[in-house]
Amino acid sequence: MQIKLDKATFNRFDVATQVKYFNSELEKGFTISEVCKKLNISYNTIRDRFLRSNYIYNKVNKKYEISNSVLAQLESEMMNQVLEKLVTKVFNYGSRESKINDFSCNCKGTVTNRSFRIYDEVLKDFVTFCENSNYSQYDILSQFIVEGIQRYSK
């Protein structure tokens, strides 16, 4: 679709046409947030509306698809990744302990959910680090934040 839409016009379309418009904008290189901003519509509204009609965002193809097609495509890829990680964790369990010996999380209290924006490369490194650790992501992240506060508060 080549037409620049406003929110009211977009909302009059059926969901399939809305998804088609969104996907065409994503193919042009826009992000979901940018398309939402162009339409002056919240991401939560789009996500919920599309989910109600069984459309989910496929991160591999970078577009919205009917959830069944996404699951079928990702099923084998995901299974291979999960199995690979599981085998790595089972067979490398003992060797990981020596890498993280000096780490100890001294954080106490209730664990709270919080959403942050993070650079994707930093997130990839963090997830890899956590996968090679015997500690949970929230323990590691909490300790990193505590150490960062101590280091940069001086």
Question: Would you write up a description of this structure?
Answer:
It is a single chain. The longest helix is centred in the middle third of the chain and has 25 residues, at 67-91. The chain folds into two domains: 7-67; 94-152, no CATH class. It has helices at residues 7-12, 15-27, 32-39, 43-52, 67-91, 93-99, 120-131, 137-152; strands at residues 55-58, 63-66. Strand 1 (55-58) and strand 2 (63-66) form a beta hairpin. A two-stranded antiparallel sheet has the order 1-2. With 154 residues, the protein is mainly α. The N and C termini lie far apart (55 Å). Mean pLDDT is 77; it is low at 93-101. The protein contains eight helices and two strands; from the N terminus they run H-H-H-H-E-E-H-H-H-H. The chain is 63% helix and 5% strand. The protein is elongated and about 55 Å long.
Summarize the structure.
The protein is mainly alpha-helical and 154 residues long. The protein contains 8 helices and 2 strands, in the order ααααββαααα.
List keywords for this structure.
mainly alpha, 154 residues, single chain
Strand-residue fraction?
A: 5-15%
Largest sheet: 2 strands, antiparallel
Dominant shape: elongated
User: How does the helix and strand content classify structurally?
Assistant: mainly alpha
Which stretches are poorly predicted, pLDDT < 50 over at least 5 residues?
93-101
Strand adjacency order, main sheet: 1-2
Number of E-type strands:
2
Q: How many distinct domains? A: 2
**What percentage of residues falls in helices of 4 or more residues?**
55-70%
